[in-house]
Amino acid sequence: MVAALTVVAPPATAQPSWEMGTPKLPTPWTHLVSPDNALPEYPRPQLTRKDWQNLNGVWEFAGAKAGEAPPFGKTLGERILVPYPAESALSGIERHEDYMWYRRTVSVPADWQVGSRNRLKLNFGAVDYLASVYVNGKKVAEHKGGYGAFSADITDALKPGAQQEIVVGVEDRADKTWQPVGKQRIVPDRGIFYEGASGIWQTVWMEPVAAAHVENLGMVPDIDTNTLGLTVQTSGDASKLTAEVIVRDGGAVVSRKRSPAGGEIKVDVPQAKLWSPDNPFLYDLDVVLRDASDRPVDRVSSYFGMREIGKVEGADGKLRMTLNGKILFQMSTLDQGYWPDGIYTAPTDAALAFDLEQHKELGFNTVRKHIKTEPDRWYYHADRLGLLVWQDMPAMRTGGRPPVDAQQQFETELHEIVEEKKNWTSVIGWVPFNEGWGEWNREATGRIADEVKAQDPARLVNAHSGVNCCDSLGDSGKGDVLDWHAYVGPGTPVPDENRASMDGEHGGFGLEIDGHMWFGEGHAYEMTPDQATLTRRYVENQTDVLKAAQRCGIGGAIYTQITDVEHEVNGFFTYDRQVKKMDFAQVKAINEQIIRESDGSGTGAPDPGPGTPGTDGVHAYKFDEGTGTTAADAVGDADATLTGAEWAPGVQGNAVSFNGNGFADTGSALVNSASSYSASAWVKLDVADGAFQTVVSQDTGSNSAFFLQYSGQDQRWAMSFVGLRALSPEKPEVGRWYHLTGVRDAKAGTVSLYVDGKKVAAQSACLAPESAGPTVIGRGQYGGNQVDFLRGDVDDVRLFDRALTDQEIASLATRP
Question: What are the BP-aspect GO terms (predicted)?
Answer without folding.
Answer: carbohydrate metabolic process
